[in-house]
Amino acid sequence: MTKPTEFSSWKSLIEHQAKLKGTTLASLFAADPARFKNFSATFGDVVLDYSKNGVSDVTMGLLFDLARDAGLEEARAKLFGGARVNNTENRPALHMALRAPAAHAGNGLAFAIDGKDVAPQVERELDLLCDFADEVRMGAFKGATGKRIRHIVNIGIGGSDLGPALIVDGLRADIGGKLQLDFVSNVDGAHLDLVLSRAVPEKTLFIVASKTFTTAETMANAKAARKWLAGKLGEAAVDRHFVAVSTNIEAVTAFGINPDRMFRFWDWVGGRYSLWSAIGLSIILAVGPHKFRDLLAGAAAVDRHFAEAPLTENLPVIMGLLQVWHRNFCGFGSQAILPYAQDLWRLPAYLQQLEMESNGKRVTREGQPVTWQTSPVIWGQAGTNGQHAFHQMLHQGSEPVPCDFILTARDRSAFPEQHQMLFANGLAQSAALAFGKSAETVSAEMKAAGKAADEVAFLTPHRTFPGNRPSTTLLLPVLDPYHLGALIALYEHKVFVAATIWNINPFDQWGVELGKEMANALLAGKGGPADSSTAGLMALYDRYTHR
Ligand code: F6P
């Protein structure tokens, strides 16, 4: 397998970056009055504006060459064709099949594994989920004491938590208010404690969401919740207050959940790609089956776009290539996710898992150490909160951080008059990052305001904004199920694009195993800690807890 660094396009990009380095975004905009049009792409009514990145036509041409050299089109065909692209676990990654049910999304794509169409099982499970959700939402499904369910508690972690939690908050405007939803993930008892402190046992339904049904945190929280419920209503009540979502029927049964109340998905759905599966049960309960299908439809439409649009007009391809440009050619180590939408406040955390668990890899698909950088650090916060926290560093820190601004045009809150302020702030931030404010302008302004010459000289460097800080803006017309589904699918495929260039497997996560093993060994007291730091801290723990 050729290393990406050996492609002629990679080498050309290094030379090209060295030449382009001195070019400012201001000069790129000045030279091309149509830069916005020329450096933006659309998927339906979603706009990707990448004009405020330090790229030219030549840059983009070379990046598309790199995509071709890396075999992106062939890799994409394998992904959609159900090949075992997760080569360390010998599995396909066919989350796209979950959002293609013909009945609603109907993107015309067919998905098969070893020649067997997966649509029938996907549709059957989706129907079961929707029927159950309808029963709960309409009050036909009751708790053990005959009371209507009013509170859903999803117990899961990682992909069995982050996706549903993101969507349930993201679609706040679509929730009728019939049900309260909470998510418990952390093994810290404080998390469960907080949620149970506002739960009424007779009216609470727990969803134990775990692909493997072996994840220590989820099992601990599920056992504690069951004990709490059985303590309040008796052991027999567990049957009507617990449902499971998993691929592991044996473990679900062993836990004591009725298999009739288990919703299934399959090993070809990766944890961080699972919100579209039965893991999305909490979403269906929150917004109802129809809107969940709209969410699937948005993602399905992006699947088709990614599968069929030419590379040069393909949003996930452009997004992935820009990440590669910033990471490997500009040397930027992190990327900020800035949703200017409070309802998307969980997006940075969601994308941390999607991007870093997928592409935080140090060896190639073949197991050779990479000699190029892979995933950047992903971080961020909802705008405008971040502006009063870390944007100082974005504007004047010692290293540029490429930013993704996610803006929505139409507001769905009860206070739409504030949306203009929100939107203006998002636009202003990306423009300030790009164009900055020169020392000349800063000092001229201070002089005009009557400041003394020595004060002007002293303050000018502090008040100067260098600009040239890259950002990309994704504009959605509105935050609704369809567009949120599309947004998430864009990022999923973007991650695949970058992984393909880097020649890494984005669908495994071996890096999470060692810590789990070591925590288990510490808990079991096996062998004792080998290093003085762990031993010293354990001794203090014992002293402070009087063990
Ligand atoms: O952190 C590792 C991981 O396997 C994630 O990939 C996954 O989303 C999470 O744990 C939860 O796993 P499960 O759904 O099997 O409980």
Automatic annotation (TrEMBL):
Family membership noted in the UniProt record: Belongs to the GPI family.
InterPro entries associated with the record: G6P_Isomerase, G6P_Isomerase_C, Phosphoglucose_isomerase_CS, SIS_dom_sf, SIS_PGI_1, SIS_PGI_2
PROSITE patterns cross-referenced by the UniProt entry: P_GLUCOSE_ISOMERASE_1, P_GLUCOSE_ISOMERASE_2, P_GLUCOSE_ISOMERASE_3
Descriptive protein name: Glucose-6-phosphate isomerase
GO molecular function, one term: glucose-6-phosphate isomerase activity
Domain of life (superkingdom): Bacteria
Active site location: 357 (proton donor), 388, 516
One Pfam family cited in the UniProt record for this chain: PGI
Annotated keywords: Cytoplasm, Gluconeogenesis, Glycolysis, Isomerase
PANTHER family associated with the record: GLUCOSE-6-PHOSPHATE ISOMERASE
E.C. numbers: 5.3.1.9
UniProt enzyme class: isomerase
NCBIfam families: PRK00179.1 (NF001211)
Pathway involvement of the protein, from the record: Carbohydrate biosynthesis; gluconeogenesis; Carbohydrate degradation; glycolysis; D-glyceraldehyde 3-phosphate and glycerone phosphate from D-glucose: step 2/4
Compartment list: Cytoplasm
Catalytic activity: alpha-D-glucose 6-phosphate = beta-D-fructose 6-phosphate
Function: Catalyzes the reversible isomerization of glucose-6-phosphate to fructose-6-phosphate.
